[in-house]
Design a protein that fits this description.
Elements (H helix, E strand, L loop, with lengths): L1 H15 L12 E2 L4 E3 L5 E10 L12 H13 L14 E10 L8 E8 L10 E8 L5 E8 L1 E8 L4 E18 L12 E6 L4 H15 L4 E5 L2 E5 H4 L4 H8 L3 E2 L6 E5 L4 E4 L4 E2 L2 E14 L2 E3 L10 E3 L2 E16 L3 E2 H10 L4 H13 L3 E2 L1 E4 L1
Parallel strand pairs: 14-23
Antiparallel strand pairs: 1-13, 2-10, 3-4, 3-6, 4-5, 5-9, 6-7, 7-9, 8-9, 10-12, 11-12, 14-15, 16-21, 16-22, 17-20, 18-19
Helix pairs in contact: 1-6
């Protein structure tokens, strides 16, 4: 009885009483959160180093010969001759060290680094990264990393078992690298600056152009395409490029978002935008369960009778249909959030809801980008 009542409520909501609400306007967003300034970017660094001081959880030298090679090179640079020596320490591990230089970082600044084991080390807990040069894509050294590794996991083992929580073979070193060389980029010499929209859109780019021109009172910005707006630095009449950009980046612009529905099948999560709309469509959903059970029966001949034992097959097959959603019609202009609210009122599970949305999209009634992960 409760199901029928809820179903009637859904039908009344979706068919009889829905009035399409006008989408609420998005809140204005700072320009710095909508665009990237051309040339103002970080640079990735990578290095190959050695973590020492591990409690027997390092690389097996026989299985990771590159660890022995880098350890020999470091010791020779320190004046220790290990040529021809046979050593099998278990407290060292070869690692990759990665970092990113933020834009406009200066010599002597410190940045965070990430350390990841590349051999068969079991844990980097308690280890110390030995001085490691970090190279950029041009092959030049821009920073040097060193420090104690903070791993994000734990590992323990005994004679007959082991347990691992998190990832103890990777960790970070906060402020673990010092910048030794600056990236060559002269912002003050730029005559024009391009703003790259993180989500290209004609309407948003046009609003950015109008907002910037209104701020300076003259044609300073020009929309080149849905993802690019060009700024004429000289036309801003500011003292420098940095002054012009500092005035531009805090301007408020109302972005235009595409209608989009994102579903995660593993967790049953559904995320949708406010502009998603559904055309007239009828929905019917139910669960069908098929059960087949085999119960073979063994038949034996009577005592002292001639015959043989046979197995008689016995099959029990049945089909069970659980209550689902009956035929419901959705009026044009109905928002997806209203449909989801109606389905929730009936107690539809998230996974069934995802299947319903897929079918509505396949029928061409869901007017939004449908992303399934």
């Amino acid at each position: 009885m409760t199901f029928v009542t809820n179903f009637l409520v859904l039908i009344c909501t979706l068919v009889c009483g829905i009035t399409a609400h006008a989408p609420a306007h998005a809140s204005p967003i700072r320009l710095k959160d909508l665009v990237e300034f051309d040339g103002v970017r970080g640079n990735d660094l990578v290095g190959y180093g050695l973590v020492v001081g591990l409690n027997g959880s390092g690389d097996g030298i026989r299985n990771a010969p590159f660890t022995e090679e880098i350890m020999s090179n470091i010791l020779e640079r320190l004046g220790v001759n290990v040529t021809g020596e046979q050593f099998r320490p278990k407290n060292v591990a070869a690692v990759f060290v990665t970092a990113s230089i933020p834009p406009f970082s200066r010599t002597g600044s410190q940045i965070d680094v990430t350390v990841s084991a590349i051999g068969d080390a079991k844990s980097l807990l308690g280890g110390t990264l030995v001085m490691t040069p970090l190279n950029a894509a041009d092959g030049e050294i821009y920073a040097v990393a060193q420090g104690t590794v903070i791993a994000g996991g734990a590992a323990a083992e005994g004679d007959a078992g082991a347990v691992v929580q998190g990832v103890p073979t990777a960790g970070v070193i906060p402020s673990g690298a010092r910048i030794e060389r600056e990236i060559d980029f002269e912002l003050s010499t730029l005559q024009t600056m391009r703003l790259a929209l993180r989500e290209p859109d004609f309407t948003t780019a046009s609003r950015i152009e109008l907002t910037i021109n209104a701020e300076f009172g003259r044609p300073v910005a020009l929309m080149l395409d849905p993802g690019t707006v060009r700024i004429d630095i000289a036309a801003t009449r500011e003292r420098s490029t940095a002054h012009a950009l500092s005035r531009i980046e805090n301007l408020l612009v109302e972005p235009e978002r595409r209608a989009r529905v994102v579903v995660d099948q593993r967790s049953g999560t559904i995320v949708m935008g406010e502009d998603v709309r559904i055309s007239r469509v009828a929905v019917s959903q139910g669960n069908l369960t098929l059960r087949v059970e085999e119960s073979p029966l063994v038949v034996q001949p009577n005592p002292f009778a001639q015959g043989e034992t046979v197995v008689v097959p016995r099959t029990n097959a049945e089909i069970e249909e659980e209550p689902g959603i009956g035929l419901a019609e959705v009026r044009p202009g109905t928002s997806l959030s209203e449909v989801i609210a109606g389905l929730n009122a009936l107690g539809v599970s998230p996974r069934d809801m995802i299947d319903i949305l897929k079918s509505i999209k396949a029928a061409g009634a869901l007017h939004a980008e449908f992303v399934v992960r």
